[in-house]
Amino acid sequence: MGIIIKKVSSKQELKTFIRFNYELYKNNPYSVPDLYDDMLNTFSQKKNAAFEFCEADYFLAYKDGKVAGRVAAIINHRANETWNKKEVRFGWIDFIDDMEVSSALLKQVEEWGKERGMEAMVGPLGFTDLDAEGMLIEGYDQLSTMSTIYNYPYYPVHMEKLGFEKETDWVEFKLMVPDKLPDKFVRISEIILQKYNLKIKKLKRKEIKEKNYGQKIFDLINEAYAPLYGFSKMTQGQINQYIKMYLPLIDLRMVSLVENEQGELVAVGISMPSLSKALQKAKGRMLPFGWYHLLKALFIKKPKILDLLLVGVKPEYQSKGVNALLFYDLVPIYQQMGFEYGESNPELEVNKKVQAQWSAFESVQHKRRRAFRKSF
């Protein structure tokens, strides 16, 4: 019996699509499961603001009557227009170690894309840059994060056998929290503050709405990330969604803002305790007790690991060392909170400016991930 590819067309099939990843990785100590409810929202045209400019379908692969793989076919029209491309994205791809399965899934994405006038396929990518992206090609023995993809080593082997080539790579770093900030780092940070008339601001919860800081943060991210691979400017609907979903969960001590003398936001750093272990304990579910593990990690007994979620600097300040100010502010807080190391999350391998900011800290590049491409 061959491989059967079926388009997801019911709530039960969508549940199967979401939970296939958990079933495939449930005994893996490095994989971090997605929260089922978050994935329901991500794949919902009514709840995910990215559908303002994206279209997508989801597919399951069956072999011998059992689910053997999954993939999402996505067209981000906004990104295609921005970068003058005709690409279909494949995302949320998982499969057993069977070439027939992976081939059938990717062939389905290719045909779906061709029907809509696309000329190439690329991935793994999500709807936007704020979704998990890039197939892991190094670091299979490292704990994943809540915002990245974990996959078995056979995945990229399949991609290469199926004729896919490297599109771009991201690298990730493990960054040790120092016992003390280097004196040179402190001096440079204080010089930068004075030279450019900058100030570090700690955000208050009421200011997110009252002084529109949520909007300011994402406007800055839109500006700072504009030149990066595959990025498409967030719409107001997306910004509203992210402010509502994520900012209430952030411990504001772990957020650093830098403003100029006019009070304009020029840099932002957002971090949070790692939820990786908590999500593993929750098994991808908030109920019955998953919420407890997440709340414990966020507010009660914080883990020793932190995630650096977002670092953004206004373009005209990017070559002035302003990003150092974020860690001048945050590292003493990390020390007080008992963190031992941080996860940088993915950075484009060609983005040397970002990687240079870790030179003041003990660090190791411990993961690498890749987007693959194939023209039709």
How would you sum up this structure, described in words?
It is built from 13 helices and 14 strands. By secondary structure, the chain is of the alpha+beta class. The protein has 2 domains: 3-170, Gcn5-related N-acetyltransferase (GNAT) (Aminopeptidase); 175-367, Aminopeptidase, CATH 3.40.630. A hairpin with a 5-residue loop joins strand 9 and strand 10 (265-273). It has helices spanning 11-25, 36-42, 77-83, 99-115, 154-161, 183-195, 207-210, 213-225, 236-246, 276-282, 290-300, 323-337, 352-356, and strands at residues 3-7, 54-63, 66-76, 87-95, 120-123, 135-138, 165-176, 199-201, 255-259, 265-273, 305-313, 341-343, 347-348, 363-375. Helix content is 35%, strand content 26%. Strands 1, 2, 3, 4, 5, 6, 7, 8, 9, 10, 11, 12, 13 and 14 form a 14-stranded mixed sheet that branches.
